[in-house]
Mur ligase central domain-containing protein (Datura stramonium), 546 residues
Amino acid sequence: MKNLSILCRFTRSVQRSMVCSVAGLVHNTGHCFSTLREDPELDELIEFLDSLKNFEKSGVPKGAGTDSEDGFDLGRMRRLMGLMGNPQSRFKTVHIAGTKGKGSTAAFLSSMLRAEGYSVGCYTSPHIQTIRERITLGRCGEPVSVKALNHHFNRRREILERAVKLENGCLSHFEVFTAIAFSLFAEENTEIAVVEAGLGGARDATNVISGPDLALSIITTVGEEHLDALGGSLESIAVAKSGIVKNGRPLVIGGPFIPSIECILRRKASSMSSPVVSASDPGNRSALRGFCEVSGIPRQLCDIVLQIEKDFDLSIELLGVKLRMLGAHQLQNAVTATCAALCLNQQGWSLSSGSIRTGLESAFLQGRTQILYSQEANLLGVPGATILLDGAHTKESARALAKTLQMTFPKAKMVLVVAMANDKDHLGFARELLSVGDLDAVFSTEVDIAGAKSRMASASLLRCAWVNASREMNMKVLDLKVADSEEQSPQGIVESRSILLAEGSLLACMRAGFKIVNERTGTQPGIIVVTGSLHIVSAVLGYLHS
């Protein structure tokens, strides 16, 4: 930042570089990466699903997640499950809703249950590389196999086709795949399922779970994502998510929440005679103690200490837990999952402290502060680089990522490579990440969103957002074209905070970022952070498996 001559030297050298030319960076934005092709054995399933409405590709309609006339018709999902024999009634379910943290909490809790020896089904979305990731089965937690998924689809295909016809083609991709997941769980004799809601809660396809089949509900956080689809306010989002609460079944809330939002959740629970356990209770004395390395990969050392007395008497003390998923927000997700595990113990399930610890330490999700191994960096053409992948795509998750980077890599020089959907808050996202202490450059790029370009934000649009956010923060904006000029002098702007902004194809941006951190780091560590959506994470991992 302070030595802008280095950036100018970089931009001159990058023009001559065989790795990435200026023209490639500034103009080569058409090379948008699409997701990996599924196994050919699943072609018929994918073709069937692709014939249905996919709101992950097209975007969610206004009001679709609200419990109103505009909301999704949960009745058609109930009719579909009825045709399939209501498989969701053949196992107990933990149902998780929330703006952020659902997937991580599901990973922590299902990992604990598997460590105890239970046969666990876990259903989450979206996926990173293959749709099979959305369904994990059994005691190992691996994605459903190609063979098992294909066989199950072929056995249920006639019913699914009949259901689509009966609903006049209105069944969606998510509804049908949710039904397939529940049917698979039942067929595989799942003892307990951990199910992540797709959107909101009340009208989500996963909310066909009835009270007697529900072990407990979890609401992790309430934020402003999908505002239009969920009623337009934080309060309406809270109401939508509270729709997963069932009569007499415990509710675990993550938080922390602002008082008005927590009041909505507790009021709903009270109306359903549901006891509430809060992971943000004063009895939560959990803390992040520091960091360590295991096999060269950072882990965070945490103490998870709970003494909760309201509604349930829950207590546990786990010191020196080594979490693979980094950040204060992941500690909160771990605490939320631990509260859920202790609630399950109150209902006759058995999760020992050892299984809870093992589950916490072994839980991992791709694209959540995921650090690539050195051999993976080599395959991407950036040998020796530290590359962190994170699917943050809201201002709240960007804030969490910024805090995690500052805690985990306090002295690192950083560059960002960013791709996002066009319906996200690009400016808010940029503002949060510009707070990272030693950020040298931001490269905007493009990747398909859910396998299509319709929701993809252009690299130039993203770059504009970063320009505006940088200027709001009184940062001098450089770009390759300006900084490469022989007449351009860094004199007069050396003392101000400056940032290099550029756009290009994904690999070109990563390799250009690699040159910057190599030039700038000296004895200090450097890191390339790839973020903005889980879809850019998918694209990077796709290169590694192509």
Summary: Confidence is low (pLDDT under 50) at residues 1-31, 481-496. The radius of gyration is 24 Å.
